[in-house]
Fold this sequence. Notes:
Layout: H1 3-8, E1 11-14, E2 22-25, H2 27-30, H3 33-49, E3 54-58, H4 61-73, E4 77-80, E5 91-97, E6 100-106, E7 116-124, H5 128-139, E8 143-152, H6 158-163, E9 168-174
Parallel strand pairs: 3-4, 3-7, 7-8, 8-9
Antiparallel strand pairs: 1-2, 5-6
Helix pairs in contact: 3-4
Amino acid sequence: MTVEDLARLVRPIPDFPKPGILFRDITTLIGHGEGFRTAVALLADIARASGAEAIAGVEARGFIFGAAVAAHLGLPFILVRKPGKLPVPVIAIDYALEYGTDTLELDPGSVAPGQRVVVVDDLIATGGTVQAAVRLIRQAGGTVDEALFAIELPDLGGRDRLAELAVDVRALMHFPGH
Length: 178
């Protein structure tokens, strides 16, 4: 399958979660065996070429793509979770959302000092969530200079936001709008 084939597997949902938004639904790609396998293999190739020593994923859809990429490469998978989900002492970071704030947590013992971590998520829009994840991984002692996504919505500026942290963004598919 080509990247163009993958893009056709992403279902557009108009006016979700609010009027004027064209939501890019990745569940149709995940639900297509060959398409999902192809997306994971392509992301894994990029992660391998970057020298990844571990893959991190942000709850929830980042777990789907990130864990699959880590398994494909035989690398550790690092979970970046929503609050209260990890049974060990954690480090946490608050970050801004469009309408408020949220928090992410990480088990600092899941990151080895100096470990080269690549963050994998399903989609980058504004980049705020992955920016917070990068900060957490770095606080735990890891090195992050690349983030991979199945989809990028370039009009929302996430790439620029991650560039502020010297993180290179790579995405399989790019869709205009928001």
